[in-house]
Write a structure and sequence with these properties.
Distance between the termini: 48 Å
Number of strands: 0
CATH superfamily of the domain at 53-125: Cytochrome c-like domain
Order of helices and strands: HHHHHH
Oligomer: single chain
CATH topology of the domain at 53-125: Cytochrome Bc1 Complex, Chain D, domain 2
CATH class of the domain at 53-125: Mainly Alpha
Largest sheet: none
Strand content: under 5%
Radius of gyration: 17 Å
CATH architecture of the domain at 53-125: Orthogonal Bundle
Structural class: mainly alpha
Shape: globular
């Protein structure tokens, strides 16, 4: 029993390490405008460019996820709804994240599984 708990903690630590390595390895800046259009003439939704489009639940994702880390980290992930849910449980249990109210958690899970699910389309820069 103790061995199973230890293995579970190791797997969770490895999971987080893989996420962090992906975040560091994928950190890329992109240009804003092309042609004769200047940046001030173009209203850019930076989160949408990262793969977090304006949709129901994005505001909650911004509130809860950016409290601890960059939304770029969130945007780089691609997980199932169950994986996102398990990650939230882990962050609450192991990283002392505050519990997300049930209604907001449902919005966040639906948004992330829709826009940052395993079948997400990666934006080409």
């Amino acid at each position: 029993m103790v061995l199973l708990k230890f293995q579970s903690k190791i797997l969770r630590a490895l999971f987080v390490a893989v996420i962090m390595i992906g975040a560091v390895g994928s950190y890329v800046t992109s240009s804003l405008a092309t042609g004769d259009t200047t940046a001030s003439e173009v209203e850019v939704d930076e989160l949408a460019q990262w793969g977090l489009p304006l949709d129901g639940g994005r505001e909650e994702v911004e509130i809860y996820c950016s409290a601890c880390h960059s939304l770029r980290l969130v945007a780089q992930q691609g997980m199932t709804k169950d994986d996102w849910d398990e990650l939230f449980d882990w962050m609450i249990e192991e990283q002392e994240m505050e519990e997300i109210p049930a209604d907001d958690r449902k919005l966040v899970l639906n948004y992330l599984s829709k826009h940052r699910g395993i079948d997400r389309k990666l934006k080409k820069n």
